[in-house]
Amino acid sequence: MNMGWLASARGPLRGRVRVPGDKSISHRAIMLAAIAEGTSRITGFLEGEDTLATARVFAQLGVRIEAPAPSERVVHGVGLDGLRAPAAVLDCGNAGTGMRLLAGLLAGQAFDSVLVGDESLSRRPMGRVAEPLALMGARIEGCDGGLPPLRITGGVRLRGIDYASPVASAQVKSAVLLAGLYAEGETTVTEPRPTRDYTERMLQAFGARVAFSPGGASVIGRPRLRATDVRVPADFSSAAFFLVAASIVPGSDLTIEAVGMNPRRTGLLEALRLMGADIETGPLREEGGEPVADLRVRAAPLHGIDVPLALVPDMIDEFPALFALAACASGRTTVRGAEELRVKESDRIASMAAALRALGIDVEERPDGAIIEGGTPRGGEVESHGDHRIAMASAVLAQRTQGVVEISDVANVATSFPGFVELATAAGFRLDAASPPG
Ligand code: S3P
User: Fold this and answer.
1) Is residue 45 included in any domain, yes or no?
2) Residue 149: cis peptide before it, omega within 30 degrees of 0
3) Same domain, 312 and 393
4) What is this structure's pTM?
5) Residue numbers belonging to the annotated binding site for 3-phosphoshikimate
6) Which residues form the Enolpyruvate transferase domain (predicted)?
7) N or C: which end of the chain has fewer CB within 10 A?
8) Same domain for 253 and 168
9) pLDDT digit string (tens) for 287-320?
C-alpha cells in the first residue's frame, strides 16, 4: 500500500523529545554479539525494520535472540565459527548496511548463503564490497554487474589484505574488517576521507585486536570475541530532522535528549551553525563508550552557505534535512562532493531536488550535489521514492510552507524511525496519515 502523509505548518515546536536508537550501532551490536562467545545484552536497540531484518537474519543463522523488553535484546552468541547454514535466502529488507556488512561476515563461513533485499536495495551497488572481498579470496556473485541478490560461496580460505578504498564508505570498510575476522593475518582498510568508526570501536569492545585512527583501521584475523553489553545512543540522523524543524519554524525552542555525538556523525551541526542556526550542545557525557549530549535548538534567521567539502562524509545521511533547511534559508546553498547521495535508498540529489521544486523552490542539480536558492516554499505534492529520509525531510519542510504538502510512499520511515509521526506531532508538527487513493 502506498501510505502517505498530509503535512503543514502549525506553530512553534517546543518541549523535549528523545529519538530512537542509532541504526548503525544497532546493526553492528547484533552482528558482533552473534559471533561472540557468551550472552550480550543490547539496550537502546532500534526497533526499526532495517535492524529487525538483521536480527531475523541471525536467527536464521542459528543465533537465539530474545527481546525481553522494547529496545532490548539478549543475544546468545555462538562464537566465531558457530553460525549455521540458513535454510532459506537471507532478507536484508531495505538495509544497505545490513547487506554490505553481512556480505563481509558471511564470506568467511563454511556454508553458502544468499542475501536479498527489497526493490530499493536491489538497485544499490554491491560491487564496492564484492571487489575487495574477492581480493581476500571470497566468492561472491551479484547480478547485472554487482547488484543484489548476492550469492556467497562458503568454505573458502580468506587472506588479510591492505585495501585502499576508492570510496569513503563505512559500509565498505566494515565489510572488509568483518571478513578480516575470518582471514589469515592482518586486514587493513584505508579510506579517502574518515567515515564512522563504529565497527572498529565495537570490535575492540568485544576483544578483537584492532588498530584505528580517522581514515583507516586494521584487524587481526581469528580473534576470540567475548560477549559484551552494548548501550546504543539515540541516532543523530533521526535527531537531525528535529534540529532542522526547530531551526526553521519561527518561535521554536526544542530540546532533543541524549543524542549520539560521535564526531563522524555530527557534520550537520557544523553546517547548521555556519548557516546561522542556534543550537546549544549540553555537557558531553559518555554512554556505552559513545559521547552523548542534549541539544537545545531555537529558531533563528538562516542563510545559505557552500557546504564545506570536509563535512560531507560526517553528514552523509543528513543531506535531505539540509536541503529542507536550505529551502527556507536566505540566499544560495551549494552542495558539492556528495555524489554518494545518488546511491542511497533513493537518488537523494534527484529526490530532494524534485521535492523542493514541487514546493516552488529553485534547485539546480549537479552530478555531485545541487545549488538551492532559498525562498518561501508553498504547498504541493512530493514523492518520497520509498526513501525514509526524503519522507521525513519533506514533513519537516512542510512545517514552514504556506499550504499543505502531500507526501507519498512513506511506509519506509519505519526502517529507521518507528514512531516518527507520534513524536513529531507531540513536538508540534501537523502531520496526518493521508488515505491511499481508491
Ligand atoms: C552506514 C554508513 C553510511 C550511511 C548509512 C549507514 C553504516 O553509508 O549512509 O546510512 O552504518 O555504516 P556509506 O558508508 O556507504 O556511506
Assistant:
1) yes
2) yes
3) yes
4) 0.98
5) 23-24, 28, 169, 171, 317, 344
6) 10-422
7) C
8) no
9) 888 999 999 999 999 999 999 999 999 999 999 9
**pLDDT tens digit string along 46-83?**
999 999 999 999 999 999 999 999 999 999 999 999 99
Number of domains in the chain: 2
Active site residue 317: yes
Distance 262 CA to ligand 1 centre (A): 14
Q: Between the CA of residue 327 and those of 155, 299, 301, 322, 391, what are the distances in Å? A: 52, 15, 13, 9, 15
Do 204 and 304 have their domain in common? no
* Residue tagged 544499490 (cell numbers): 124
> Which ligand 1 atom sits nearest the alpha carbon of residue 23?
11
pLDDT digits (tens, 9 = 90+) for 88-136: 999 999 999 999 999 999 999 999 999 999 999 999 999 999 999 999 9
Same domain, 212 and 339: no
Whether residues 16 and 159 share a domain: the answer is no
Buried b (16+ CB within 10 A) or exposed e, 220-259: bbebebebbebbbbbbbbbbbbbbbbbbbbeebebbbbbb
Determine whether the shortest distance from the Cβ of 170 to ligand 1 is under 6 A. Answer: yes
Q: Which of 195, 219, 243 is the last residue of a domain?
A: 219
Residue found by looking up cell 589469515 in the block: 184
Pocket of ligand 1, candidates 22, 23, 24: which has the most ligand atoms within 8 Å of its Cβ, to mutate?
A: 24
Indicate whether 243 and 323 sit together in one domain.
yes
Nearest ligand 1 atom to the CA of 24 is 11
Closest residue to atom 15 of ligand 1, CA basis = 169
